[in-house]
Amino acid sequence: MKAIVVRPPNVGAEVKDVDLHEPVLPGRVRIRTLYTGICGTDRGIVGGKITFARPPDNSGELILGHEGLGVVEEVGEGVTHLKKGDLVVPVVRRGCGVCLNCRIGRQDFCETGNFVEAGIRGLNGFMREEFVDSASYLVKVPRAIADIAVLTEPLSNVVKAVGQVIHIQKRMLWTCGDSSYECRNAFVVGTGPIGTFFSLMFATYGFNVYMLNRRDPSPAESVIAETIDATFYNTSKGYAELPKADVVVDTSGYPSAFIPLLGKMNKNSILVLFGTSSNDSAKVDAELVTSIVENNIAVVGSVNASKEDFAEAVNYLTMWKERYGGLLNKMITSVISPEQATEALMKKPSGEIKTVIKWS
Asked: pTM, whole model, 2 decimals?
């Protein structure tokens, strides 16, 4: 079986044949991989920059990939909700089995830190021709979105984060006078797939959306912004023309990209930190801290997603395809072979929103 293998913390990735001898035991399913997505986490692992990446126990190699879409080839005894031919997306994080959150399927809020994540830490991922997985970690996907369902995993993380925004902001009356969010402004820093999904989510909720980057939009980004009625804003020109924000979401991980925006935040607003990076800094002084306190600004970090969030992401993809037609296909800017993936994993292609690997 062909797979893309890494050896963290070493730099580089390799396409090689592996034989894992994975039988289809009761409760498990064999899946033939169709597509896997490439994201910043994958590139961080390949580049040796993500220190928590690790192979499974008693192995020196990790099969990469946590954004997967596959088709069921075989089901084990006791599996009743899936059958051969079904399209499925696998959940990434698997719980510690000890804390309450993990025992009720909310391993995205694991309290021990002893979880594993497919293709990232302690568990082989989905950049391979096939894999066997527990049916409980698989989300069924309708064939109507087969062309974009590989985007389910990144969207699931956004679904979770936006849900936290709405939940936290119930600390007060935050909707507009007509009970909508049409008077609220959402700034999304970064216009990659995660940033694009945040923009789509907030637009769906009715927010006025501003897609922020340090450059002008690519042609695909221009189409996306225009279609969802968002404003693409080049922050290299300064911030003076921006209105006040009720939500700021940072997907870049660069403090220098979002710290300057804190002065543009309304009272009772919320800052969501989603992106991670390195080698960047910005000054946070006592005056800024005082402003956050005095203006009731909430700050929340968000990572990962539960199976519930994956299922909800499938619903959003289905709805958006009906509403926007082929808009989401524009997010997939490149489809490559496994052999081409090693180069794409080392260096982000120019103009990329999302690169996916086609396996079959």
From this structure: 0.96
